[in-house]
Every structure is written in structure tokens, then in C-alpha cells.
Specification:
Helices cover 31% and strands 33% of the residues. The protein has 206 residues and is an alpha+beta fold. A hairpin with a 5-residue loop joins strand 4 and strand 5. The radius of gyration is 19 Å and the shape is globular. It folds into 2 domains: 47 residues, no CATH class; 116 residues, 3-Layer(aba) Sandwich (Aminopeptidase).
Length: 206
């Protein structure tokens, strides 16, 4: 739990580095008043889900013309366009955010799903991470125009297959409590909702 003295030091350091805001992730219960007293506001709440079985049994309905390949540097504009269609501004990534998601774990897998018959049009992307025997679904987004056709399931299946090769025992993912579609998909694919979620707090560095 933060106290006012180290928080003052953290704010000073963040401000000197050019950061305008601080974000703090908390799992403790009954801390909202304490964080508010330190100048934080509640920014969002997240579900935490974990899958222990990495062999998906859900039948895929991926259209034959779609395929998954390694993401290239030239894909970044299309990837970010899809990302921004799927997430509200606070959660949208930029090129640095994509890179940070890939560097968050010792190993990562960054893939796009494309339409082979339409000049390789990118329909969605995923970033999986792996480390210390655990896997992480860092990011996934499918264009709203191409959802519910098996694309997201196929991207997750691809990530699970990769994680099994590294002998991962579980996969974790977070999603906003308001994202009912994502929650339904994860539950359908065997993720289990954890009792304790995450709360994200924000305050100014000044």
C-alpha cells in the first residue's frame, strides 16, 4: 500500500521524466478511500481470468481464406487502426505500446490474421507473452467488421499452441468489467474468472 511520503517522491521522479500522470494497479480490497485520500481516482476495473487447459476444444469456424502470420513492421498502421476501433481512448495503444507489450515478458508472439483473397487485408492481431512457466494474453483485437467468424478464437488457439511448446502451465488475461463480449469469449474458451480482480487508479504527477 502506498503512503504519502513515497508517493511524493514517486510523483517528483515521474514529473522530472516528463510524465503527466501516474497509474497504480491494486488488488487489495477496501482500498478505494485510501487511494482517494492520496490523490488517486478510480480509472477502471478489470476482470482477471486464467486458463489451465491450453488445449482448446471449441470448434473453429475460421473461413478458409483467412490465415495467421507473423506481424511485420509494415503492419503497424493497420494493427493500430483495428486496436483503436476496439478500445476506448484510455486503452488504445500506439507503436510504443505495442513494443512494450512485446517486451513485457521474456518471450512474445505477435501475430496478425489476414484475408488472403483481399490483398492480405489485416483483420486482427494478438500478442502473447511467456515467462516462468506462465503465459499471458497481452493483447487481442479483431476488426468489428470481421468479428464472430472465428478470427479471435483462431488467434487464441495459435497463442495456446505456442505456449504449450514452452510447457506453460496456465494463461492469464485481463479485460474491462464492461467488455461483456470479451468476457463471454474467454469463458467459452475455458478461462476461469478469478474472484479477485484489479482496480486501476490514476493521479497527476504534479
Amino acid at each position: 500500500m502506498l503512503s504519502s511520503f513515497p508517493l511524493t517522491q514517486i510523483k517528483r521522479a515521474a514529473s522530472s521524466l516528463g510524465y503527466d500522470n501516474l497509474l497504480w494497479q491494486a488488488t487489495e480490497e477496501l482500498t478505494e478511500t485510501a487511494y482517494r485520500d492520496l490523490g488517486f481516482i478510480l480509472r477502471d476495473r478489470l476482470h482477471v481470468l486464467v486458463a489451465w487447459d491450453l488445449k482448446l476444444t471449441k470448434k473453429q469456424n475460421l473461413i478458409n481464406r483467412f490465415t495467421i502470420r507473423r506481424a511485420r513492421s509494415t503492419d503497424i498502421d493497420a494493427v493500430l487502426e483495428i486496436d483503436h476501433m476496439c478500445f476506448e481512448p484510455f486503452w488504445q495503444l500506439d507503436p510504443q505500446g505495442i513494443e512494450e507489450a512485446m517486451l513485457a515478458t521474456p518471450r512474445s508472439r505477435y501475430r496478425v490474421i489476414v484475408d488472403k483473397t483481399n490483398y492480405g487485408t489485416i483483420l486482427g492481431y494478438s500478442i502473447f507473452g511467456q515467462g516462468a512457466g506462465s503465459g499471458y494474453l497481452q493483447r487481442i483485437a479483431v476488426s468489428p467488421y470481421h468479428q464472430r467468424n472465428g478470427a479471435a478464437t483462431s488467434l487464441i488457439t495459435d497463442g495456446f499452441t505456442w505456449l504449450r511448446r514452452w510447457r506453460c502451465q496456465k494463461v492469464s488475461v485481463n479485460t474491462q468489467v464492461t467488455n461483456e463480449n470479451a468476457l463471454a469469449l474467454y469463458l467459452e474458451l475455458g478461462f476461469k474468472l478469478q474472484r479477485q480482480g484489479l482496480s486501476l487508479y490514476q493521479c497527476s504527477s504534479s
